[in-house]
Task: structure prediction
Amino acid sequence: MAEQHRQPRCLSIIGFGPPFFSLLGGIGYLLVIQFPSRVDFSQYRTFNVISVLTLASLAAGILSGIALWGVNSSRTFQGILWVCIPTILLLTALHNRQLLVKSVLIPRDACINNARRIEAAKVQWAQQHSLTNGAEISWNDVAPHFPKGLPKCPEGGVYVLGTIGQEVRCSNPNHQVPP
Result:
């Protein structure tokens, strides 16, 4: 009876590793480049998790490709292929800088920017209706300037509209415009 040559289980896992990690790293890379260059504070954590997992997957793809290449000499071309693919993806990711650097918009700055946008809408409405300082204005007057809805404070503050000539303020004391 001829003895069947069975491949050890670890070799079959190693053979599965390079394509899996390369594919996972490629998908992660495609997800990361979808993020805008400036993310808000809540998106930053998600961005960091995806970036780290992408880099780790690509590195694991390279290492498992090297392991496949070294363990099974009959699969030299396949080993080289699975070392090259994640290496190219990793170098592309590092060169593109999409995985490394993002500008983070902190909640205070986002709130101040929202207040400035509301103020600009208030001024525009006042000019259209020939109003002067001290005239009353309501949220219904400025709402048409925000088709996606009125801006909201990222930390739950409430904007105080005031009258024409007064600046829009947030109820959160940490979100006041610096003098």
Remarks:
- The chain has five helices and four strands.
- The CA atoms of residues 1 and 63 lie 39 Å apart.
- The first helix runs from residue 9 to 32.
